[in-house]
Amino acid sequence: MTGQHIQAEKVIVCEKLTKRFGDFTATDEISFEVYKGEIFGFLGANGAGKTTAMRMLCGLSAPTSGKASIAGYDVYTQTEDIKRNIGYMSQKFSLYENLTVLENIEFFGGIYGLPDEQIETKTNELLDRLGMKSESKKLVASLPLGWKQKLSFSVAVLHEPKIVFLDEPTGGVDPVTRRQFWNLIYEAADRGITVFVTTHYMDEAEYCNRISIMVDGRMEVLDSPANLKSRFGVKTMDEVFYQLARGAKRGD
């Protein structure tokens, strides 16, 4: 497990963060902290409030109430600063399919404000690390799904953001490719990048330093995978999730 070097620096701080849509409460007073270099899993069934919470943390949606700071910036008043200090990748990818691999890297390097020399250096490093130098002139649309995902993640951290948000990043790929993708996550965490990841694969929860599980807009549990399995008296995160879904007590 990587990330055991986690420092005490807090890069995400939430206090009673709430989002309502009319009478519906999507996130209900969630409070938590995430640390520099931590791999933080954000789990929950569809409709549990994960996407709503992530949109607030990325500065894309204003909270109804509560407080939150991302990389030291306020989610109400400093959303542009937040966007400059984070990376983002979703299952639907952020890449342009009608551009080549090289064009995508150069385009996003420019979007992130990197100087040309730095873009060139980072492009060569990235292609080398992914073993994609021979594919650099190919359209992204022609790449296998697993390669798209690895490239998309690498582009999301091209500017060395303080935090990268990953929304169901490994959906639809085989277990071997998923493991390779997680190796990239470990490398990013080792460089001090905080990884905030949503996933519905319970085996991936085991790779995180800590995980939270959302149920009906509330954060029901937050702890390391080992501690959660011990608390619920089970051997897998699947069983933890199943007990929570059935409304089992937290065992506090």
TrEMBL record:
Topology term for the membrane: Multi-pass membrane protein
GO cellular component: membrane
Localisation: Membrane
Coiled-coil stretches noted in the UniProt entry, renumbered to this chain: none
SUPFAM superfamilies: P-loop containing nucleoside triphosphate hydrolases (SSF52540)
One Pfam match: ABC_tran
GO molecular-function term, one example from the UniProt record: ATP binding
Entry keyword Transport: yes
Keywords: ATP-binding, Membrane, Nucleotide-binding, Transmembrane, Transmembrane helix, Transport
Domain (ABC transporter) ranges: 12-241
CDD domains: ABC_DR_subfamily_A
PANTHER family, sorted: ABC TRANSPORTER G FAMILY MEMBER 20 ISOFORM X1, ATP-BINDING CASSETTE, SUB-FAMILY H, MEMBER 1
Protein name: ABC transporter ATP-binding protein
Organism: Dyadobacter pollutisoli
